[in-house]
């Protein structure tokens, strides 16, 4: 009777030694989840990179060829139009208002602006030189932010500026996105980032990655 009770109590104590097979699967499952999350994050950043690059490429193409969207047909750069004249001559607020008016339509301003759009678009779409693109793109966005000057509540003629946010607008967001893409090596997925990084002159000048 005592033996039977002892055996019965052992079967129902609820105490079990850990199974080596079970303990081995937990880390594997965790590693799989981590790998999946890493791959998903890489693909998300790559998608954001391609979309952002297309924004800049489209702006370049529309301004260059006058596709009838932001730039009317026949007013493209190749038709003799100026990519900067309309925007910069329309600056109506901020401490650099007169400076931007002087730059409006200047040949050097047109070339720098268009090359900047093209360079940023190609770098982001291809996934190469993202660090350089982040620096150049942040500089361009800073100038455009100052041209629109969202800090102002009124324009120089006294009319409301209609600024929706005095600090963070789409220029700031674009700059932040480009920096995030550069530091996360977003060009390595769906891009030529890895191939670019292996080039001798790039491997010796890491700022070109």
Report how far the terminal alpha carbons are from each other: 79 Å
How many distinct beta strands? 0
Portion in strands: under 5%
Radius of gyration from CA coordinates: 28 Å
Q: Which sequence of SSEs, written as H and E, runs from N to C?
A: HHHHHHHHH
The major beta sheet can be summarized as: none
Q: Please estimate the helix content.
A: 55-70%
User: What structural class should be given to the helix and strand makeup?
Assistant: mainly alpha
- What characteristic shape results from the CA principal axes? globular
| Alpha plus pi helix count | 9
The chain-level mean pLDDT equals 90
Low-confidence stretches: 1-15
Features:
disordered N terminus; mainly alpha; 209 residues
Topology:
Layout: H1 2-11, H2 20-65, H3 85-89, H4 97-103, H5 107-126, H6 130-148, H7 170-183, H8 193-197, H9 200-203
Write up what this structure looks like.
- Helix 2 packs antiparallel against helix 5 (107-126), helix 5 packs across helix 6 (130-148) and helix 6 packs antiparallel against helix 7 (170-183).
- The chain has helices at residues 2-11, 20-65, 85-89, 97-103, 107-126, 130-148, 170-183, 193-197, 200-203.
- It has 209 residues and is an all-alpha fold.
- The model is unreliable at 1-15 (pLDDT under 50).
- It contains 9 helices and no strands.
- The protein starts with a helix and ends in a 6-residue tail after the last helix.
């Amino acid at each position: 009777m005592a033996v039977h009770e002892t055996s019965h109590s052992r079967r129902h104590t609820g105490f079990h030694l850990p199974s080596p097979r079970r303990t081995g699967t937990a880390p594997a499952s965790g590693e799989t989840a981590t790998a999946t999350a890493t791959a998903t994050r890489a693909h998300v950043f790559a998608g954001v990179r391609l979309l952002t690059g297309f924004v800049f490429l489209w702006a370049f193409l529309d301004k260059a060829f006058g596709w009838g969207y932001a730039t009317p047909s026949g007013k493209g750069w190749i038709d003799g139009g100026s990519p900067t004249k309309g925007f910069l001559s329309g600056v109506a607020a901020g401490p650099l208002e007169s400076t931007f008016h002087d730059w409006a339509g200047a040949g050097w301003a047109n070339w720098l602006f268009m090359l900047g759009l093209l360079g940023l678009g190609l770098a982001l779409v291809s996934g190469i030189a993202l660090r350089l693109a982040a620096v150049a793109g942040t500089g361009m966005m800073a100038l455009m932010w100052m041209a629109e000057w969202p800090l102002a509540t009124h324009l120089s003629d006294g009319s409301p500026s209609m600024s929706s946010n005095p600090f963070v607008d789409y220029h700031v967001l674009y700059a932040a996105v480009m920096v995030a893409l550069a530091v996360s090596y977003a060009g390595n997925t769906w891009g030529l980032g890895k191939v670019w990084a292996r080039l001798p002159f790039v491997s010796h000048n890491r700022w070109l990655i």
